[in-house]
Amino acid sequence: MAENTRSVLEHTAADQWKVLPSGLTVLVRPMPGYSGTHVIYATRFGSIDRDFRLGEREVHLPAGVAHFLEHKMFEDEDGDAFAKFAKTGANANAFTAFDRTCYLFTATEQLDESLDVLLGMVGHPYFTEQTIAKEQGIIGQEIKMYDDSPDWRLITGLCECLYHSHPIRSDIAGTVESIAEITPEMLYDCCKAFYAPGNMVLAAAGSTSMEQILAACARHGLMDERPAEKVERLLRPEPMTLAAAEKTIAMPIAKPCFGLGFKEEPLPFGDLRSEMLYELILCCICGGMSPLYRRLYDEGLTDPGFGGEVLRVDGCCCILFTGESDRPDTVRQLLLDEIERVRKEGVDREIFTLCKNEKYGQLIENLENVEDSASQMADFALAGQTVAQQITMLAGLTAEDADAALQHILRPERMAVMHIEPDGTAAEEDEEEETEE
After folding, report:
1. What does the pLDDT look like over 362-403, one tens digit per residue?
2. Are residues 37 and 141 in the same domain?
3. How many CB atoms lie within 10 A of CB 207?
4. Secondary structure E strands in 338-378
5. pTM to 2 decimals?
6. Cα separation of 69 and 131, whole Å?
7. Which has the closest alpha carbon to 18: 191, 243, 294, 210?
8. Which CATH number does the domain housing residue 116 bear?
């Protein structure tokens, strides 16, 4: 990419940002001419953060606490925050990932009022044994929904094979048994440890300004200094061996699903360069522009959704390939053969350039949408970077870097396989429907 073109892209992606006296990182992308504003309030606290030291005291959590806390944040002594957002006309939501929890809303009017709801509910948690008991039943139903998702079961099954003790083995929502152990004290400990402003990011994009966002922060005391809690995450050492080489389960699906997982060395915090390099390698091996993808698709060996992804969190990095196929063993061998071919011959230079340009396009395209723009800012800020830094880093990646990385990743000896076979019930349901017709 030409230097002047890259400079223009970096300037376009330059967001306004500020670290407040409280420690909160604020990022704003004013987008004149847009009617809506998307706001994300995110914390570096996800499902893997189950063991930590708070001050001099160790805290050990059952699986699913971060997700449970996300649900409970919307409820306080004054009622439900969703009802408050409804009064301002904002569309609110939240989600929990392995390493983060995000609260968000989109508004076209009454932005100040919606900001007050968001900052107020996250800044003033309220939990009782009664409200927790009520939520346990609701989340129990959500857990069953995840259990019925073959895509999610592939991911969790592969993580169970790849890791011995890392908490990524556990479902983000936990289990019905694990969430039954949750107490108000656990939730307050999590808020004290991880919902401190210094561990959080506030990102806004659209019809707003840094001054408007800072004014909202001031109304909620976030412009004042806050004493920092002493928090230390505790992770057990994880060997590079596999917990299991293969796993098979049966589900009510019409077509077999399969997954391959490769256990990689964990990446240091903020090392988004290696993560993006791995993603470019996957694009070259089995992305939509690769010879392997075209062959698999043309011969009907996989569904169009087949592909690879990089999953990395603190203490964990793995590369996963998932899809549907009636001939999963054939697909697996073709994939392994292609990995070895590319390892020996090097990545195709033309495909690497196309994949790299596609990444540029995704980064820039996200700047044109308020939701994507705010999400992109928040994601990178949680890793200590900006969108402009991502563009600079991407520009520096070369095909030679990909060749070098391929010498130590995607090793067959660190590979696990996951199969989901049809249990026959899906076919029976189809036959019943045909009979009724």
Report:
1. 988 998 999 999 999 999 999 888 888 888 999 999 999 999
2. yes
3. 20
4. none
5. 0.91
6. 12
7. 210
8. 3.30.830.10
What range defines the domain where residue 157 resides?
3-233
Listed range (2-11, 315-324, 369-378) with the worst mean pLDDT:
2-11
Residue 434 has pLDDT above 70, yes or no: no
Beta bridge partners of 29: 205
Q: Are residues 188 and 321 in the same domain?
A: no
Same-domain status, 252 and 390: yes
Number of domains in the chain: 2
DSSP secondary-structure letter at 357? H
Average pLDDT over residues 24-39: 95
- Please identify every residue annotated as catalytic: 70
**What per-residue confidence (pLDDT) applies to 9?**
43
Beta-sheet pairing, 25-30 with 200-206: parallel
- Mean pLDDT in the chain? 91
Question: What one-character-per-residue DSSP string does 97-113 give?
Answer: -SS-EEEEEEESS-HHH
Euclidean distance between the first and final Cα of the chain, in Å? 59
Element (H, E) at 60: strand 57-60
Same domain, 273 and 381: yes
pLDDT at 147: 81
Domain end: 185, 202, 233, which one?
A: 233
DSSP states of 212-255 as a string? HHHHHHHHTTTTS--PPP-EEE------SS-S-SEEEEEES-SS
Question: Is there a single domain that holds both residue 297 and residue 334?
Answer: yes
Same domain, 177 and 284: no
- Domain match, 199 and 297 both: no
In a domain? residue 239: no
What average pLDDT does this structure show over 87-100? Answer: 96
What does the pLDDT read at residue 426?
57
Domain stop point among 233, 255, 272: 233
Name residue 328's beta-bridge partners. Answer: none
C-beta of residue 246 within 8 angstroms of C-beta of residue 416: yes
The 10s digit of each residue's pLDDT in 215-274 is 999 999 999 998 888 999 998 889 999 999 999 999 999 899 999 999 999 999 888 899
Shortest CA distance to 16 belongs to which of 246, 192, 212, 259? Answer: 212
What is the pLDDT at residue 6? 45
Q: Which helix (H) or strand (E) holds 435?
A: helix 425-436
- Tell me: do 208 and 341 sit in the same domain: no
